[in-house]
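Reply to dn_fold:

You asked what the input looked like. This is it:
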Amino acid sequence: MPDQIQFAHRFDGITGSAIRDIFKLIAQPDMISFAGGNPSPAALPDAEAARIAEAVLKEKGKQILQYGATEGYPPFLESLKPYAEQAVGCPLPAILPTTGSTQAMDLLCKALIDPGDAILVEDPSFLGNLQCMKFYQAKLIPVESDEGGLRMDKLEEAMAQHHPKMLYVIPNFQNPTGKTLASERRPKIAELADRYHCVVAEDDPYRDLRYRGIFHPSIKSYDQAGWVVFMGSFSKIISPGIRVGWIAGDEDIIRKCTLGKQSTDVHTANLTQAIVDRFLREDFLPGHLRRIRRDYAAQCDAMLAELEQFPAGVTYTRPEGGLFIWVELPEGVDAQALLTRAVERHVAFVPGTSFYADGGHANTFRLNFSNSTLEQIHTGMTALREVIAEALNA
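and this is what came back:
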């Protein structure tokens, strides 16, 4: 590399995804990984996707293989709208298909965020989107949460003090904690957004993965003034590899996101939009969701049962859905150091410090249960329990 090359300042302090770095450590074929957020291989409908892909290419191949509109593949827009409005629980003035919901967050930041703008985030929050916000040189302000998600008193204090441009929140089975935002707090967030003129980025990729309890209305469904933008994804419920997500909300905001997308990738792939369109039109999704929810519930319950056997002082969340369980160790225990020992025992997880905007919290880590069999969960959690017990008794 040339010695004199000068990179953009937006890369200052950007170290890359902790999860992607861990993947480099766990390439061994006998590794049991609780580190990623991958759907189960058994949940990926490869045969159905192959059938649909062949059908749509035979029927509309010339159109699909040509450039498409940035605004989306027209048949998919037609089927997406009723699906999205049912999920969100209210009419949606504008919807834009995106290349995964990760792109939705990037486009929203591109449309709204100038260097130095304040964004309020849950503490902890999804590290991928924390990194996205840092690329746009935002000032991240963590807001304290409890068992019911964001604390409304702390949120209002932060809005009054920092006048944020945006609030980023994952309301259902939050990544990384698995917590669900309490129903009674959702209308309050919409009200605070209107009062303080703050855009709420409601990121809800796990909504359809509920295994127990009741569905809660979206924050967007309480939005009367257009301050809430909803981001959805088909990555966790159909396939992450097809890279199809969507963003919906105020027409002016979505128009700016559309303009930003034109210079990013022109449009999301027509073929993958067409595949998801057929999943929706053929009503394949409800039965598929019933099957994967059943399997994921069993995997979640198996991991929780294993955690009950962990040493005293280890606490963890009990999610009602999603893909993750959050673990806290006694103060002074370093999860990063434990990861090294766990990898030696062929088990991996993600240390929690990367999920905090300000770092710290070295005694936390995230577990994923969806990408492991019941046997792997038992074997891996047994090894992890022994590693933690050894550290606590050292």
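The first helix runs from residue 18 to 25.
Hope that clears it up.
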